[in-house]
Design goal:
The chain has 102 residues and is of the alpha/beta class. It has a single domain (2-99), classed as NAD(P)-binding Rossmann-like Domain (Rossmann fold), CATH 3.40.50. Helices cover 33% and strands 21% of the residues. β4, α3 (72-83) and β5 (88-91) form a beta-alpha-beta unit. 25% of the residues are buried. The model has no long low-confidence stretch (mean pLDDT 91).
Length: 102
Amino acid sequence: MYFEDNDLYNIAIYGLGALGIHLYEELREGKVSIEYGIDQNASGIKVDGLDIKTLEDRLPRVDAVVVTPIAFYEIEKKIQKKMGKEVAILFIEDVVDYCFGK
């Protein structure tokens, strides 16, 4: 799997629409720990077992943030400003392409 192959074991998911929630459901029982979700509408979202934050909250250090919305580059800049350039910021499309050998 992409995350283990790249030594990314503690991640956050940005965007908790259908794709983000599906990713969370797929990963939560595996070796990857989803530390929290990030969404601009954090107060309106409930996902069982997942702490949901906004970019304005304190965001604990993770190995990577997986961005699920299509507006990746705009969101990437906001995350880098908040968390620094040390954290990997991954576009969900790149993760899926890797998993399916594209």
